[in-house]
TrEMBL record:
This is Glycoside hydrolase 131 catalytic N-terminal domain-containing protein. Residues 1-18 form the signal peptide. The keyword Signal applies. The keyword Transcription regulation does not apply.
C-alpha cells in the first residue's frame, strides 16, 4: 500500500495519469474488506503458472476447459490499462475460446471457466454475506458473436441444476435479440436483476453482493476508474444450494434444444473476454469495497 501511495504521487506529479501506458496506470482502489478468494493475477506471473497444482495458487488448474488445452494456452495477457482494483501490482487476463474449447463430451458448448482454487460447494463462498468483484473489457481483435448466448460469470449450484446468479452477454436463447449487446445479470429463474450496455473500449466494473442469510442480491457498477455505486437491489433471490463460482466464457450453440451436446458453433473460433480485479470479499457488517 505504501509503495502504491508513492507511485500515485509520482504519477500525479508527472501528469501522466490521463494517458497511461499499458499495465502501468492509476493506483488500485483500496480493497477494504477481508478477501475470501483472490483471483487477481500478480504482474509477472508466468502463464505456465496456471497449468498445475504445483504452481497455481489462484485457480483450479484442471477445470473447466477444453480437454486438450492448458490454461497457459487459453489465457492471454492483453496490453490494456489496469482495471480499478488491479492497479500497478496485478494484471488483466483474457479468457479465450477456440474450436478446442470442448469440456468432457459437451460438444454443444465452447467453454473456459476459471474457478477459485479454494472454492468448494459448501465452502465460504456459499455462506454469510459475500461480494464478488470483477471488471470486464472487450478485445476488438477477438469479438464475441452476440447472436449466441454467453455465460461469463456465474455461481453454479452444487447439484448443477441451476445458477443462483448469472452474468451474461449476447442473445439469451428464446429471448429477444434487442438487448444482445447488454451485459445482463439474472437470478436462477432468469429474472433480470440488472442490465447495462457493454462498452466497446472501457473497463466496466461489477460487484455482486450475495446475502446467503437473507437470500438477497445487490449489484454495484461503475465504468473506467470510477468508484462503484449501487445500481440494483437489495432484491430477493434464492441463493440456496451451495456450489461454486465460475469466471470466463461458456458459449451456447444455436439451433438446438440440447445445448450441452449439439447445435451449431462456427469454426475457427477466436474469441476473448478480458477480466481484471477479480476477488470475493467478506461483506459482513455491510462492508463493500467501492
Ligand atoms: C455468429 O453466429 C451465427 C449463429 O451461429 C452464425 O450464423 C454467424 O455466422 C456467426 N458470425 C460470425 C461472424 O461468425
Amino acid at each position: 500500500m505504501h509503495r502504491q501511495g508513492i507511485a500515485a504521487i509520482i504519477l500525479s506529479a508527472g501528469g501522466v495519469i490521463a494517458a497511461p501506458a499499458p499495465q502501468a496506470s492509476a493506483p488500485a482502489a483500496e480493497i477494504k474488506c477481508p478477501i475470501v478468494f483472490d483471483g487477481r493475477v500478480p504482474v509477472g506471473t508466468e502463464k505456465t503458472f496456471f497449468d498445475t497444482y504445483a504452481t497455481n495458487t489462484i485457480f483450479n488448474p484442471d477445470y473447466v476447459k477444453g480437454n486438450d488445452l492448458k490454461w497457459s494456452q487459453i489465457l492471454q495477457y492483453p496490453s490494456v490499462e489496469s482495471s480499478r482494483f488491479d492497479g500497478a501490482d496485478y494484471q488483466a487476463i483474457e479468457v479465450t475460446l477456440s474450436d478446442k474449447s470442448i469440456f468432457q463430451q459437451q460438444n454443444g458448448f465452447r467453454r473456459a471457466g476459471l474457478q477459485f482454487l479454494r472454492d468448494s460447494s459448501d465452502g465460504p463462498g456459499t455462506t454469510g454475506v459475500k461480494t464478488l468483484h470483477f471488471s470486464v473489457k472487450q478485445d476488438p481483435t477477438r469479438p464475441l458473436n452476440l447472436t449466441h448466448e454467453y455465460l461469463n460469470v456465474w455461481h453454479e449450484a452444487a447439484d448443477y441444476s441451476s445458477n443462483q446468479i448469472q452474468f451474461q452477454y449476447g442473445q439469451i436463447i428464446g429471448k429477444s435479440a434487442a438487448d444482445k449487446n447488454n451485459f445482463k445479470i439474472l437470478d436462477r429463474n432468469g429474472r433480470s436483476l440488472y442490465s447495462v450496455a457493454a462498452d466497446p473500449s472501457s473497463w466496466q466494473n461489477f460487484a455482486i453482493k450475495l446475502d446467503y442469510t437473507k437470500n438477497q442480491v445487490q449489484i454495484y457498477y461503475s465504468i473506467g476508474q470510477a468508484a462503484l455505486k449501487s445500481v440494483a437491489g437489495p432484491t430477493s433471490a434464492s441463493l440456496t444450494g451451495g456450489g461454486q463460482f465460475q469466471i470466463g466464457m461458456l458459449k451456447k450453440p444455436t439451433g438446438t434444444s440440447d445445448v450441452v451436446n449439439s447445435g451449431y458453433q462456427e469454426k475457427n473460433l477466436n474469441e476473448g473476454q478480458i477480466y481484471g480485479g477479480l476477488f470475493l470479499e467478506d461483506s459482513a457488517n455491510n462492508c463493500v469495497s467501492l
